[in-house]
Structure formats: C-alpha cells, structure tokens
Amino acid sequence: MDGGPRVPEQRLAGYPAEGGNPAALRFGVLGPVRAWRGDASLATGSPQQRALLAALLLREGRTATAGELIDALWGEDPPSQALAAVRTYASRLRKALDPGVLVSESGGYAVRGLGEGSLDLGVAQDLAAEAEKARGAGDLCRARDALRRALALWDGEALAGVPGPYAETQRVRLEEWRLQLLETRLDMDLEQGCHAEAVSELTALTAAHPLRERLRELLMLALYRSGRQAEALAVYADTRRLLADELGVDPRPGLRELQQRILQADPALAEPSAPAAESAAAPVRPAQLPATVPDFTGRASFVRELSEVLGSASGAEGRVMAVSALAGIGGVGKTTLAVHVAHQARAAFPDGQLYVDLQGAGARAAEPETVLGSFLRALGTADSAIPDSLEERAALYRSVLDGRRVLVLLDNARDAAQVRPLLPGTDGCAALVTSRVRMVDLAGAHLVDLDVMSPEEALALFTRIVGEERVASEREAALDVVGACGFLPLAIRIAASRLAARRTWTVSVLAAKLADERRRLDELQAGDLAVKATFELGYGQLEPAQARAFRLLGLADGPDISLAAAAAVLDLPPEDTEDLLESLVDTSLLESAAPGRYRFHDLVRLYARACAERDEHPPSERGAALSRLLDFYLATAAGVYAIERPGDRLVDGLEPTEYPGLTFTEGSAALDWLYTEAAPLLACVRQAAGTDRLRRAVDLLWAAKDLTESGANSHQYETTASAMCDATGACGDARAEGRARTTLTNVLLVSGRIQQAAEQAELAMTLAESARDTTAVSWVANDRGLISLHQGRYADGRAFLEQAIEGYRAADNRAGEALSLCNLSRAHLGMGNTEKAVAIAHRGLTAQLGIGRTMRLANGHFTLGVALTEAGRHTQALGQFADALRIFEDHRQRLWQGTTNFRIAQVHLAARRPAQAAQHAEQALALGCIGGDRMRGNVLTLLGRSLSALGQVDRTRACWRDALSLFEQCGAPEADEARALLSPATTV
Question: In angstroms, what CA-CA distances link 154 with 129, 175, 792?
C-alpha cells in the first residue's frame, strides 16, 4: 500500500479462525513483548529473555543460530557467559510455552507451530494488505476500517523495554511502518470528507513528529477543506522555517505545490479525489426514493425528456449540475412523475438515491442545513463529523458526493435559494426538483412545466384505477368525471379510488356528484383550487369516524405526526387510531411518512382544516383536540425531563395536564422520542399563541430545554421562545411571560449572547416575582448568576446563586440546589477563593452523586474539574473532565462535549503538554461549545497558545486573528487580549 512497506521478517497470516482453540498461544510485539495462553498471561521473564523471544518471533519460524542471538541481544560487546545465558533463556521459555513451540536445531533455536493470528504483527500485516487491496478496488470504507484495526493493535511503543541492537532496529522499523499506515489512513479520511475529525489528530501528530512533511501536508489540506485557509498557509510557513532551522533544507516539492494551490484557491483542491460515505463495512448506498405508483399513466414525452437529461449526467460525458426542475400547480403529479423517472434511472446511479420533501408549500419550509444533515447521515457521515453551518455542510456534502453517481430528488421545493445548497454540483450526479414555482433563477437547470393531463391520459389513469370493465360501458360519464376534476392527476386518483372502493356505484353516480355545483367551489378552474372539489368528493364518502379523524388531524401544525400524538388528538386508543389512519392512507387523503408516522399533503391539510371549521360540532372540539395534543407533548416531555434529571422539582411546577403522555423506563428511548418529536413539538407550542393553552405551551418549551442545550434544534427552539415571549406579553400573563423569557434566557446563554441574556433574565425575574412564581424565580436567579460570571461580576454572581440555592432548598429541589452549588464554586474561583471553590464543587458533586448518574452529574464533574485546574491539581482535574465527557456523550450533549474538551485542553497547556492541548482544542472546535462565537474565539485563542508552544508561529497568529474577528463581531472583552497577542511586541 502507499507508503506502507511490509516489515520484511514477518509474514504470519491473519486472524484466528472463528471458534478456534481457546487455549492457543498468542504473542504480542506491538507494545511490550507478551505471551498468552487463551486469556491467561504467561511470564516471559527478564528483559533479555523477552529480547530472545522477540528475535525468534520476528524470524517467522526460521532458525536463529546462537551467534545471531548473541549479536541480537548484546551486539559487539557480549558478556563472557553469553552462550550459557542464551541457553538458559531458551530453556525457561520452553517450559513456559507449549511443547514443540520453541525448538532447538543446528545449534540454534526457532519458534514453530503457531496458529493463524498468533502474533499481533502478523495480524497487522494482513490487515494492511487487506486495506491495500480494498483501496485498489475503490472501497475506501473497508480500507479505512482495516487500517483502523491494524493500528489499534499497537499498545504503546513496539518491543517496549526490550534491550539489544536487534530490538532497537526493529523498534525504529515498526514505528516508521506505523506512521506510514497512519498517514495512509488519514489520507483516506480526507478523501471521505472527514476534515474536521482529521484536523485534531493531525495537529497532535505534527507536534509529535514536526519534521514529517507528509503529516504537515495532510494537515494543510484538512484545514483548507475545513474553511481555515489562513491556518493552512500558516502551517506551510511554520514548516519551511522549521526545516530551514533544523535541517537547512526547503520543503519538498509536493508541499510547495500544495501551498501554491491553496493561494490560488484551486477549486479541485476543495474536494476530495475519491470520497465515499463513512461505513463500518461497506459503502453506504442510500435508497430513499418513495415507491412508484404501479398504475403510472401517460406523461410519455416528459418521461423521455427527463430521462435524457439524467442520461447526460450518468454517461461518459457526464456534466456538472445535471438538474431538472419540474414546476406546476399542486396535485398536477410532479412528485409522481419525478419518482417514476427516478426509479427508471436507478441503474445509472449505482451509488444511491436521496429523497427529501422540502415542504415548500407549507408555512415552515425545511431548512437546507437540516436537510444536509439528514443527507450526510444517509451517506454514512458520522454525526460528530457534520459541521454546524450551512456553508460547511454544503461543502462537505459536495465532497462526499464527488466521484460517485448519486441521484437526488428534491421534492416540493419553495424556491431556488432553498435548493442551491442541496445540489451535488459534481460530475456523475443529478438532481430532480419539484416545485410550484418555475425556478428560472436556478442556474443551469433544465426547466419543465408540468400541466394537467390530456383528456386521453386522464381517462387512461381513471380507467387503470377503477377498472376497464366499469369504464367501458360509461365512457361519456368517465370523461365527465375527469373533466370535473380539471384533469388534475391527484384529483383523478382520489375520485377514482373512492369509486373503486364503492362497488355499488356506477361511474354516472360519481359524475352526477361532481356535476353538483353545490359540491364544487367557484374556483374549481383556478389552479390549486381544483383539487378541493376532488377532496370534497373523497371526504364526503368517508365513514363518520374517518371524517372526524381527517378533520382533527389536519388541525395540528408540524411536518408530520406520530401515532401516539394522533391518538391524543382523536382521544382514542392507539390501536383504533392506527386503523383509522391506515384507512385514510388507503384513500390517499393521508400519507404514511414512515412506520408509525403520518403526514398530510399540503393542500389536503388546508382542506381538512376548512372541513373542521365547517363541520366539527361542537366547535369547541377543535380546541379540545389541540389541547389533548399539547397535554400529550407536555406530559411526555416532563417525563423525559424527569428521567434525565431525577430529583429536579421543575416538573412539579408545570401546568397540570389531563391527557397522559408516554412513559419511558430508560434515558436513551426518552431522548430518542424528544429529538424525533422536536419539530412537531415546537410547532405545537407555537400554535398555542393567542389561546387558553398558552401557559401549558410555555411549560412544554421549558420541559424540552434539552433541544437547545444539545445544539440539535437551537434555531427552531429560539424562534419558538421568541414567539412565546411576544404572545405571553400580548395577553398580559406575567407568569407565562416570565417563564417564556426564562427559556429565551437559556437559549441566549448557550449561544454566548450574554448582554441579551442579561436583559431577558432581568425581565424574567421581575415577571416571576410579580406572579409569585417561585419555581421560575430560582431558575432565573441561577441564570443571572451565570450571566454575572460571564461578565466578570463575581460578587453579584455569588449573590444570585445563593438566592437560587435558597429557593431550590425551600422547594426541596435537590437537583437544582446541586446545580447552583456547582455554579457557586465558579463564582468563588473568580473572586480568587480557590480552595473554597474546590470545597463547594465537591459538595455539589456529592449532591449530584446522591441523586444518581444523570446528565447533571456531568456538570458536577465538570465544575470540580474547573476548580481543580485553577488549584493546579491537573491529574485530578483530567479525571473529573473524563467522567464528565463520558456522561455528556451518553446524553448526546454535543455542545457540552466540546466545552469539556476545551477545559481538558486548558489543563494540558497548563501542565506544559501543548500537543495534547492542541488536539483537544481542535476537538472542541469540531464539536462546538456552549457560548457560541465568543466561546469559539476562546478555543482559538487557546489553540494559538498551544501551537505557539510547539513553535508553529504562523498558524498561531492565524488562530488569534480568527479569534479577534469573532470577539469583535460579538463585542466580547476578550478582543483586547487577542489584539495584545497579535501585537508586534508579543513573543510567540
């Protein structure tokens, strides 16, 4: 494989066979020299005895003479009794190992009879060969996995602690081979678009091996592809200076060429050469296309036209941006045609097909960054490798698709701006877009205007659904039906489906119903409104229970609804609800988005709401249905909160609910529910504005606060919190407004907008106190304490936090009290009371331990780690941060994971371990941190200090310039520190 030659003296075969001898001998040389029989460790004796064993193991069963072994162990200055010592070592090893393994012959010794996979080095070599073969076949996923497993076999330095010149030679050889394997794996990481992950590892490696130019080259490329061009160029400048100082040479030509390509912003450099989706075993090939309808009819010219465009992308002359955009009114069959064409073209796109409903016709269209996150996951990208911003996600998406043949179907788009970030933009890929608007501003797109069907096509579709026998005798009536449907495919399909389900009806009966103008809207001939007449027909044939379900489900906002939530809306058992919903799916009035989840077509939802306003009696049932839905979400979210934070009495202060929610027995399932339901849950909150459900809606937002602290749905959460502040302020409900502003304060704190958070917290406190809302008062006091700490007002912070502790204690809220105790520790740190801060942090952690292993226990470990860092107790601090990191990972708190990595980096830098500090700082940048751009600036400042200690002057200054820019944008006081670091007088 590239850069990875085999170690010449060892070629043992791969793994032990499945179900092999559990007592077989195994040996390790990629670390200390060790031996095992099964799982039992065997004594390998003194260092010289281990050196003898290593020399024999590395000779692949060949005999080593006594003279060769003496040279291996002692070199040119052996002891007088060297031969006797060799015989003694061999005798001891023979007794420790199985009979016949260490044999004597021709005055020397050999190790024979070992099974496959008996030596870790042999396993590593087989894995390296497997990786080389997989890479040659274009399967980067399998190649990377094989190299990961090979590299994982190293346990520290090879032949660690083994004396002698032979061991030293082999140690150097094995370390060089390990680095070559590592470079090859990192090269493939970049080919697969894993730039952010690679930067952290490469930063640590270049610090450990500063003269290794290939690592520097990979770091430059990873930084450039991560949007950090200035740092990439700074790495080159640092490398050039180091090579000149240490070796008196210039960088090799490949490194110089890369610098020039970065300076020129070479477009080819921004994308990997042969990316593929991350996978544990095989490339991920998404197949997300919805099922095509079996009775697809007509549209032959459109099918031909679109197929030709797709063919131009998949052929040898494949062109960039092979995009077709279908436009037409709702219900004209855009999606059906696009899905049909996409299925026909699947063979031309063997690397997969992506699909998304962009909800462009609704009030809240899908956000491109959310869609990109879903696509990247479908293509095998790990969550940790998915960046936050739209631009970074779009760049990574294009990188992952480059070199692959993937078809992307973007259904129901709002406009070209929503679509552009989702286009592959590379040869061999293609996109089909459907929208109600003509995308004349989508550069390079092949535009297709889809009109209603011709009378012949409409009649053919109607006949295929209803049946030839029923239509043949009533052809004129059938033409009247499709004419009344405006030749709109969706309307025809619904009408025909209803007729097909009514065997006693004739086509004439259906035609007569459609001819009744009282059942048709005046706007029947006006585009989208033509569908309503058909909906009216379908709705009119529903059974009463179906019609009620149709009306009430249409009231709920959100992109879809789960079966359990639908049961709450209908006030029915889940089994009965499922039967009703599936029957609506059968009539094409409802879609099954996924098992257990349902959604309306946009126009059908509007029609369902109109029916609810017209037909639901008593009218109060509409509000009651939405009230039950809100109760369901609130009760379930409160249960999730209680599982995540046992002992927290916040749930006791929430508005009571009448309708029950789901119950969970363990945290993972609870979190799965919360994140899956985020969009419909927040939509339910927003929908309660201006109603008597407002208080419960605000409490639901509060109970779902993990949605913002995890970073998963921060933007949607903030939008909803702002809307609730406006709604509660408008109705004059001080209690509800105080709580709404409390949720907004939390969002602003997490994103680092401290001044805005302070303003909201002050309003929230005034409102909570006026409403005598003691639950909110304690929470706001805690938040005001945190805000004061961020502003450097430590005495004020202590006062607020002591107020919070007193309030929590009065309410017997042990979790809240423990949390504020931890925060109080940080106030004392700010005032210089380090030992008291450590003691208080211990109290907070002890209180959290008394509650259980919850997410907030991680905060206890984190806070104690911060205090111990300030006290100079670095080893203990790292232990606390490691415990915190594990818990944050378990609870999917990505931003807290990043913040903890930042703190770990601080400890390593304080302990004069700049390479480790830089590695953890890079991990913090990749994950994101609590505190938004201001905190990112702090991470960059710390990274710069770490790089400065490593002598990487230019990259150091690039980091500090980026930090200064962020500080200036958010008005942070740390800008002065960054300017000072960048001043000419600063020594770096």
Answer: 17, 10, 47
DSSP 518-551: GGS-GGGGSTTHHHHHHHHHHHHTS-HHHHHHHH
- Of residues 622, 458, 649, the one with CA closest to residue 551: 622
* CB burial of residue 363 (10 Å; 0-12, 13-18, 19+): exposed
Tokens standing for 177?
A: 């081979």
544-553 and 602-615 helices cross at what angle (nearest 10)?
A: 110
Which of 327, 236, 342 shows the shortest CA–CA distance to 287? Answer: 342
How confident is the model over 763-819, as pLDDT tens digits?
A: 999 999 999 999 999 999 999 999 999 899 999 999 999 999 999 999 999 888 999
What is each CA distance from 987 to 581, 948, 957, 981, 983, in whole angstroms? 70, 9, 11, 8, 9
Answer for the pair 444, 324: CB distance below 8 angstroms, yes or no: no
Contact present, 102 and 56 (Cβ < 8 Å):
yes
> Strand (E) positions, 5-94?
25-28, 34-37, 40-42, 64-65
Q: What is the mean pLDDT of each run of 10 residues along the chain (988 residues)?
A: 36 37 80 89 90 89 88 90 91 86 86 85 92 85 91 92 92 92 91 83 88 90 87 89 86 88 81 45 76 82 84 56 74 86 87 88 78 88 79 88 89 88 85 82 82 87 88 90 79 80 84 62 34 65 91 92 96 94 80 83 76 89 95 96 86 92 89 90 94 95 86 82 95 95 92 91 95 94 93 93 93 90 92 92 89 81 93 93 91 89 95 92 89 91 93 92 91 90 68
3-class secondary structure, 515: helix
Burial of 320 (0-12, 13-18, 19+ CB in 10 A): middle
CA distance 308 to 539: 40
Which helix (H) or strand (E) is 76 found in, with range?
A: none
Number of residues assigned to the chain: 988
Which token pair is 146?
A: 């094989």
**Cβ atoms 120, 35 nearer than 8 A:** no
Amino acid 681: pLDDT: 96
How far is the C-alpha of 697 from the C-alpha of 678, rounded, in Å?
Answer: 14
Q: How many CA atoms lie within 13 A of 970 on its CB side?
A: 23
Q: Distance (Å, rounded) from C-alpha 592 to C-alpha 571?
A: 20
- Three-state SS for 353? strand
Residues 701, 319: Cα–Cα separation, whole Å: 48
Whole-number Å distance between alpha carbons of 838 and 852:
21
pTM of the model: 0.63
CA distance 723 to 376: 31
- Burial status of residue 784 (CB atoms within 10 A of its CB: 0-12, 13-18, 19 or more): buried
Query: Could you give the 3-state DSSP secondary structure of residue 355?
Result: strand
Helix (H, G, I), strand (E, B) or coil at 897: helix
Nearest residue to 944 (alpha-carbon basis) of 934, 932, 953: 953
Angle at 429 between CA 427 and CA 431, to 5 degrees: 130
Collapsed DSSP state (helix, strand, coil) of residue 687? helix
DSSP 802: H
- Per DSSP, the three-state class of 7 is coil
Site of tokens 């080893």: 875
Spatial distance between the Cα atoms of 29 and 171, rounded to a whole number of angstroms:
10
